[in-house]
Design a protein that fits this description.
By secondary structure, the protein is mainly alpha-helical. It contains three helices and no strands. The longest helix has 15 residues. The radius of gyration is 11 Å and the shape is globular. The N and C termini lie close together (9 Å).
C-alpha cells in the first residue's frame, strides 16, 4: 500500500519516489502545497474507495499518517 501512496504523491508533487519515505513530512520534506494535499486526498479516496473525514485531514502530516488512516 505504501508504494501505491508514494505513486499517488509523485503524480502531484515533483519528487522522485525514492525520496519519499514513510516518515517524510508531506509539506516540509516533500514540498506539497495545500492544493497538492487536496488532490492527493481525492486520488486516494478514488483509488481505495474510501472517504477521508475532513476532520482527520489536518492530522495527516507524514506519508505514514496516510497509510495509518487507511
Amino acid at each position: 500500500m505504501l508504494k501505491e501512496i508514494v505513486e499517488i504523491i509523485c503524480e502531484y508533487v515533483e519528487i522522485e519516489p525514492e525520496a519519499v519515505t514513510e516518515e517524510a513530512s508531506l509539506r516540509s520534506d516533500i514540498g506539497a502545497t495545500s492544493f497538492d494535499l487536496m488532490n492527493i486526498a481525492v486520488a486516494i479516496e478514488e483509488k481505495y474507495h474510501v472517504s477521508l473525514p475532513d476532520s482527520k485531514l489536518p492530522m495527516i502530516k507524514t506519508v505514514g499518517d496516510i497509510a495509518a488512516l487507511l
